[in-house]
Amino acid sequence: MGLSLQDQLLKAGIADKKQAKKAKHEKRAKRKENKGKKTIPEINQAQQDHLAQAKRSQDLNRQLNQEKERLIKIL
Fold it and tell me: Which residues touch 60 (CB under 8 Å, ≥6 apart)?
């Protein structure tokens, strides 16, 4: 399997172990700080997407039911 970007940078001599350790620590701290937090716009957007999908599903189901009723009347 290929090397991670961090390993590639270390191998190429572009970064040193101290920089890699600092970046890893900052990334972990940021991830820990934001764990479980969602901003209000993200939550609202998720709710809006869910409602839009539910409306599309209802419209499709209504159309399918109308088509079934029309076919039953023909038969």
Answer: none
Contact 21, 4 (CB under 8 A): no
Burial class (CB in 10 A: 0-12, 13-18, 19+), 27: exposed
Spatial separation of the C-alpha atoms in residues 29 and 23, rounded to whole Å: 10
Cβ pair 9, 20 in contact under 8 A: yes
> Tens digits of per-residue pLDDT, 14-58?
989 999 899 999 999 988 887 777 667 777 888 889 999 999 999
| Residue with the two structure tokens 């900052």 | 26
Whether 33 contacts 16, CB under 8 Å:
no
- The helix (run of H) or strand (run of E) holding residue 54 is helix 40-74
